[in-house]
Design brief:
It is a single chain. The protein has helices at about 15-30, 35-40, 45-55, 60-80, 85-90, 95-110, 115-130. Helix 2 (about 35-40) crosses helix 3 (about 45-55) and helix 4 (about 60-80) crosses helix 6 (about 95-110). It folds into two domains: about 15-55; about 60-130, no CATH class. Helices cover about 65% and strands about 0% of the residues. The protein is built from seven helices and no strands. By secondary structure, it is mostly helical.
Length: about 140
Amino acid sequence: MDNQDSTPKPRKPYKSKNVRNKHIKAMAAAGMTQRDIAKQVDLAPSRVNAIISQSFTPAEMAAFKDIEANLLAKKRYEIIKSIDEHDIKKANLTGKAMAYGVFYDKQALLENRATSISDVDIRHLVASIVVDNPVDNSIIDPE
């Protein structure tokens, strides 16, 4: 008798992928690293990352939106603080400057502020026309 495959295969530790994914998200929320979670559930770290990054519940999304502008402001601040004279001389400063601009624009959008000069000008023009200078259609000459 050939006993090469007589070792029993381990039983699946989770009833479903949904249960497994909830457990992975719970471990991440508890502060475990993705690498440690991957070892525990026998998955690649990239797969664990994908599972953690999957859709949020409505409550999680609402909580995130409440703090999103502050998170972006903090990242902008960290980037600016991290730039020193040595960085200014390095080529990757372009990337940092670009990141700063993106964070600035996204924060402005979240705070309902204009993200370009034309937005400011258009808002000013519309406000002045509607409020200060209503259109008088009675003076239009049909000729």
